[in-house]
């Protein structure tokens, strides 16, 4: 997939035009899982919608396997399977099997191939035993799996997954990611938007950070993390309550930034490479002896590239 100077503006009633994408250039290789990450309103869905021919760009172009989304929309649609999250695109009053039969018909799958393809997809996605049940009775995870089945009915080489694991419990999300891994090993190209840094780190061959309609960083998770290592090493202080975190931060040099995870009860400090020994020493002096160091996580990279936006609705729950 190749995006060249893609801009998309929306008219807003009674206000200035809103620029959702601003001259976006992006080159994704054939095959692999490619993550698109960014805060709410960054432009991820808009980019996916243009790539899938649902929306036209205001200027610039996107090609998929060499086909232009405007001039060759028909071919692009045949190449791409779209998996949006939530209830969009599923019919609650139909069964899972009927939904897939419908989407097979919409995608031009020959009638004689439809029953076999539908059953194979239902089995593959673990929905075989629920095939005859109404989709409105499905859990969110089951609906997401049905979405993926829908995206696969025409056996497309490219899949766009828009936040596919949002709201899933950890086991369902883990199983879903395993499926995405299988799609990669089949040679498909997957473009995945996600807010889940761990998901991006474990699943994606490349990640692209987008903010305010612009690409702010792109590369493999490892290269992006290595970039950040030049600026800082992650020092994790384990078993730390919120108030102990506050005390710790006041005891550390001002230039050390720290992020507390209340659930995991740890604080991640990003420390300049030359100051690690000094900072670890200061942490231990505060009575916290369970300390590990390592490369920054993708989340650290994300926060480093995009900064924090406190007091706005554009921050991410990470
Ligand atoms: N139809 C529309 N009319 C007006 N503005 C729109 C429209 N669609 C999107 N936008 C605006 O474009 C910007 C980008 O939206 P988009 O949905 O692409 O963001 P996103 O990165 O997918 O966000 P999220 O993570 O919340 O899904 C936002 O400011 C949004 O309000």
From TrEMBL:
Residues 1-237 form the ABC transporter domain. One of its GO terms (molecular function) is ATP hydrolysis activity. GO terms for biological process: response to antibiotic. It holds the Pfam family ABC_tran. It is found in: Cell membrane. The keyword Amino-acid biosynthesis does not apply. Its main location: membrane. It is a peripheral membrane protein. One of its GO terms (cellular component) is plasma membrane. Belongs to the ABC transporter superfamily. This is ABC transporter ATP-binding protein. It comes from Ornithinimicrobium ciconiae. The lineage of its organism: Bacteria, Bacillati, Actinomycetota, Actinomycetes, Micrococcales.
